[in-house]
Design brief:
By secondary structure, the chain is mainly beta. 5% of the residues lie in helices and 52% in strands. The protein has one helix and 28 strands. The chain has a four-stranded antiparallel β-sheet with strand order 3-2-1-28, with no helix packed on it.
């Protein structure tokens, strides 16, 4: 969508708000402002890319070697894991400043947020730190598998799923009690993880197997394993169910359907794609290219790409606010 067409849509919606009677049902104006947050591990900062303006609007200094990033469901906070600082930086998504720094376990990597808590995978501690998002303090520590890598929260917030890179498994955490309730076997060295919009499917990138495992969350069982490119790391799912897998070892992105079937690709991107995140309006998918210091913007519908966006040094994690 161009800036011109976006602005035209805004005028139509604002006109409707002024002229429609109070009893009229007015569709929500969405998205108002969707932003992409990129953790640059080599420059100790986070790049903020505005999807409406299609430009970088801020660079936020954080801790030492930021690698993972996750957005709060409300869109007002972003959480960044600082690997060498063993901390999480909390960014105000409106002011683009760090408002809190929270100590966690050793070598934090991934982070996923529910409305009340943020769950941080501590790669060096084999644990997950649970942060109360109101207090910006750790309130629980959950034991998981060896070398926990990435995390994703279910849409209802009742479960968080963690990939255990050194154990070839996914740990299911019950968020009501902050406790592990199940372990699901997957491929070798599982890394990135994503969940479908309805919460029925998990997608796990197995870096050591060059595959993606599809998990049925109702039974917590793998139902499909799909070969992708070499060394897949990041994975994301669009609202319509398209799965985008960043293949670090082959400089490509593989696109899968909801059941794990290949539907497009491999799409060539720049060097060492690592992170993958989908816009909440089915418009674009964003992939970080660690070896090129860029962000690829992929059209979620036709898989076309514009010019890569320059970001900081060695970008890894990426998240989108909604």
């Amino acid at each position: 969508m161009s800036v011109q067409s976006f602005c035209a849509g805004a005028i139509v919606v604002l006109s409707a708000l002024v002229t429609a009677p109070a009893s009229a049902s007015i569709p929500p104006f969405y998205p108002f402002r969707v932003q992409v947050y990129v953790a640059n591990s080599g420059s100790d900062n986070v790049t903020v890319y505005d999807t409406r303006l299609r430009e970088v609007v801020a660079t936020v200094p954080v801790g030492d070697q930021p690698v993972g990033v996750g957005a709060h469901p409300g869109g007002d906070r972003v959480y960044v894991t600082n690997d060498l600082s063993s901390t999480v930086s909390v960014i105000d998504a409106r002011a683009h400043v760090v408002v809190a720094t929270v100590p966690v376990g050793a070598h934090p990597f991934g982070v996923a947020a529910t409305p009340t808590h943020a769950y941080v995978t501590n790669f060096g501690s084999n644990t997950v730190s649970v942060i109360d998002v109101a207090a910006n303090a750790v309130v629980s520590t959950v034991p998981v598998g060896r070398f926990p890598h990435s995390a994703v929260a279910g849409p209802d917030g009742s479960r968080v799923y963690v990939t255990n890179n050194g154990a070839g498994s996914v740990t299911v955490i019950d968020t009501a009690g902050h406790r592990p309730v199940q372990t699901i076997p997957v491929g070798r060295y599982p890394a990135g993880i994503a969940i479908s919009a309805d919460g029925s499917r998990l997608y796990v990138a197995n870096t050591g197997s060059d595959t993606v495992t599809v998990i049925d969350t109702r039974r917590n069982l793998p139902i499909a394993t799909t070969p992708v490119g070499r060394a897949p790391l990041g994975v994301s799912v669009t609202p319509s169910g398209r799965v985008h897998v960043a293949n670090t070892g082959s400089d490509t992105v593989t696109v899968l359907g909801p059941s794990g079937e290949p539907v497009a690709g491999p799409l060539p991107v720049q060097r060492m794609p690592e992170g993958s995140a989908a816009a909440p309006d089915d418009s674009f998918v964003f992939v970080t290219n660690t070896g090129s210091d860029t962000l690829s913007v992929i059209d979620a519908d036709d898989a076309s790409q514009g010019a890569p966006v320059p970001v900081g040094a060695q970008p890894e994690g990426v998240a989108v606010t909604s």
